[in-house]
Amino acid sequence: MRVLVVEDSKVDQFLVVTFLENFFEDVTVETANDGLQALKLCDEHNYDLKFLDINMPSMSGFQFLDNLCKHKCESNIIMLSSSLHDEEREKALSYRCVSAYIEKPLKKEHLDVIKSILKEDDGD
């Protein structure tokens, strides 16, 4: 499984990468510090799953989604945010390619959500 973590906080990047490596076998995780770097990586690689922060420098998570959807609509994006605003959750889930919205930090309880997204993608 190939995963992209788009997050400007090195601490949050580390936490998500560690979480994925602890709970999934055969996972390759790449990181991007902002939406611009993530768009470049998405042009170069296909990812089974993307974790996307909302508030980042250079390009927000929403700007990233707008740009990604112009070129190709990819699904299996999980928005990660520390925001408790319902408006951000609703906006994130209004994108076809966003499969879930999870409030930081990523916890063991989120495993079922992640596994169900991956299972849907496999067609099971």
Strand portion: 15-25%
CATH class group:
Alpha Beta
Indicate the percent of residues in helices: 40-55%
User: What Rg do the Cα atoms give?
Assistant: 13 Å
Which stretches are low in confidence, meaning pLDDT under 50 for 5 or more residues running?
A: none
Mean pLDDT: 90
Spatial separation of the terminal alpha carbons: 16 Å
Number of domains: 1
Summarize the structure.
The protein is α/β, with parallel strands linked by helices and 124 residues long. It has 5 helices and 5 strands; from the N terminus they run E-H-E-H-E-H-E-H-E-H.
Word description of this protein:
The chain has 124 residues and is of the alpha/beta class. The protein has a single domain, classed as Rossmann fold (3-Layer(aba) Sandwich). Helices cover 44% and strands 21% of the residues. It has a 5-stranded parallel sheet with strand order 2-1-3-4-5, sandwiched between helices. The longest helix has 14 residues, at 10-23.
Q: What are the salient characteristics of this protein?
A:
alpha/beta; Rossmann fold; 21% strand
Task: Describe the protein's topology.
Blueprint: E1 2-6, H1 10-23, E2 28-32, H2 35-44, E3 49-53, H3 61-71, E4 77-81, H4 86-93, E5 98-103, H5 111-122
